[in-house]
Amino acid sequence: MTNTVRMHQGPVDSSKVPRFAGPATFARLPRLDQVPRADVAVVGVPFDTGVSYRPGARFGPAAVREASRLLRPYHPGLDVSPFERVQVADAGDIAANPFDIGEAIEAIEAGADAIDARLVTIGGDHTIALPLLRSVARRHGPVALVHFDAHLDTWDTYFGAEYTHGTPFRRAAEEGLLDTEALSHVGIRGSLYGKKDLEEDRRLGFGIVTAADVLRRGLDEVTDLLRQRIGDRPVYISVDIDVLDPAHAPGTGTPEAGGLTSRELLEILRALAGCRLVGADVVEVAPAYDHAEITSIAASHVAYDLVSLLALNAEERG
Ligand SMILES: [Mn+2]
Question: Which residues bind Mn(2+) 1 per the record (predicted)?
Answer without folding.
Answer: 149, 151, 153, 240, 242
